[in-house]
Design goal:
Blueprint: H1 7-37, H2 52-57, H3 70-85, H4 96-116, H5 119-129
Length: about 130
């Protein structure tokens, strides 16, 4: 009778392994999303891949936590100038919706950096490495 296997124990083990795999997949996804957000090989705004010389010449580089291509960098400079001086732009698209877009992007970048620097994300990295 000792050789009888209990199906309940096998089902619990199988379910436990399935939950662990799902947990690892979610951890991997969160980690990858943060890593990709801080990739210094692409523009943080439009996602275009940058050439090596573009990264080195960028006014906004990975030391700021993000890289911007030349076009997005110019738009961001305009956003900063318009936001700090409260002046209007001569460019027809740089109106209220455009300011909201860049403002939301800045908030998103700050939130990403805060999460990346959080103890929870550090623990996620530690657990993932184990």
């Amino acid at each position: 009778m000792t050789k009888v296997l209990h199906i309940g124990d096998r089902l619990k083990t199988k379910e436990s392994k399935k939950r662990a795999e799902l947990y690892r997949d979610r951890m991997r996804s969160v980690r990858r999303a943060v890593q990709c957000a801080f990739c210094n090989l692409k523009c943080s705004m439009c996602g275009r891949y940058l050439r090596k010389e573009e990264v080195s010449q960028s006014l906004f580089s990975s030391s700021d936590g993000f890289n911007l291509c030349e076009s997005c960098g110019s738009e961001f400079e305009d956003f900063i100038r318009i936001s700090t001086t409260q002046k209007t732009s001569e460019l027809f698209w740089q109106k209220e919706a455009w300011r909201k877009l860049w403002s939301a992007w800045v908030d998103y970048q700050e939130a990403l950096k805060a999460f990346k620097d959080s103890p929870e994300f550090q623990k996620l990295n530690e657990e993932f490495e184990e």
